[in-house]
Design brief:
With 299 residues, the chain is of the alpha/beta class. It has helices spanning 57-66, 88-94, 112-115, 157-169, 187-199, 207-210, 216-243, 272-287; strands at 19-25, 29-35, 41-47, 79-86, 101-106, 135-141, 144-145, 151-153, 174-178, 203-206, 248-252, 258-260. Helix 5 (187-199) links the parallel strand 9 and strand 10 (203-206). The longest helix is centred in the last third of the chain and has 28 residues, at 216-243.
């Protein structure tokens, strides 16, 4: 994945003959900043959701500043690039509105992510309220690879196919594949991914590709989050891109770097919106000669 931590006007696209846009799409309001070809900055603020008037707030804001009708396309001749931070993934996670997800894991570890590390603020409470799980169903795969790469039990691909096919028939289309030691010894996860592709799953997140970390729970959580959020994010990105065919579209990741729209993944999008504020705060403080600053973000 290509990222660029520099979010200044000159990166990744600098063009003095066309518009450039920077957008913050929040849960309530969307803020649009545009730079005209003559260098002047203009702004527009609108509701993030107003389906009676527009499909998407970011595109509607761009059309407003370009003085275009609602049915007129935004073209590359007009716009050099659009750089956006969004809370689409953040809100989907907080409101539990992600994609129904199947978790495929090594037999015997179906509850490992639920048990997790038992880190709770009030460890000795008698009534424990567990957080809602992001995955809907668990399929246990007959497979096991040791920490040294020895195949303790070969993957039973036929049994796995039957179990995954049954969940696909029930409507699940997103799958997270997390095997023991899969971060380093990837063959079984790769084989399970091929099975999922052949069945027809549209979102397949494997732990060795999503989060190649040693710790099973951290790796598994990240992989499940990616499978849970990426379809929602992908649909939003596609909707925006369709309204601006050919225009270069970049999204801010949780790291504060920019990535191409179609490389934007759920696991990198949770702090997309807030990250923009941090980057802007740091840059503004540096320009003012301030080395230590405190930022406040109120949604």
């Amino acid at each position: 994945m290509t990222t660029n931590p520099d979010t200044s006007a000159s990166s990744p696209v600098a063009d003095d003959t066309r518009w450039q846009f920077w957008i913050d799409r929040g849960g309530t309001f969307t803020d649009v900043v545009g730079r005209r070809p003559d260098g002047r900055l203009v702004t527009h603020k609108l509701l993030s959701d107003n389906p009676e008037h527009y499909k998407d707030a970011a595109v509607a804001g761009i059309r407003h500043l370009l003085d275009l009708r609602a049915d007129e396309p935004v073209t590359p001749d007009m716009v050099a690039c659009v750089k956006m931070g969004t809370t689409v993934a953040t809100n989907a996670l907080l409101e539990r509105k992600g994609e129904p997800t199947l978790l495929v894991t090594t037999r015997g570890f179906r509850d490992a992510l639920r048990i997790a590390y038992q880190n709770r603020p009030r460890l000795f409470d008698r009534h424990i309220v567990l957080p809602e799980l992001l995955y809907q169903v668990v399929v246990e795969a007959d497979e096991r690879v040791s920490a040294h790469g020895d195949v303790v039990q070969p993957l039973d691909a036929l049994a796995l196919r039957a179990a995954m096919q049954a969940q696909f028939a029930l409507g699940l289309r997103s799958v997270a594949i997390v095997f023991m030691h899969g971060y380093r010894y990837t063959a079984h996860e790769e084989a399970a991914k091929r099975v999922a592709q052949e069945i027809g799953f549209t979102q397949i997140s494997t732990s060795h590709e999503t989060s190649p970390m040693m710790k099973f729970v951290s790796r598994g959580d990240t992989t499940v989050v990616d499978a849970y959020l990426s379809p929602i994010l992908g649909r939003y990105v596609d909707r925006v891109a369709q309204e601006m065919p050919g225009v270069r579209l970049f999204f801010m990741q949780s790291s504060g770097g920019l990535t191409d729209a179609h490389a934007f993944q759920g696991k990198d999008a949770i702090l997309s919106g807030p990250a923009g504020g941090i980057v802007g705060m740091a840059r503004t403080a540096a320009l003012g000669g301030h080395a230590k600053v405190i930022g406040f973000d109120m949604g």
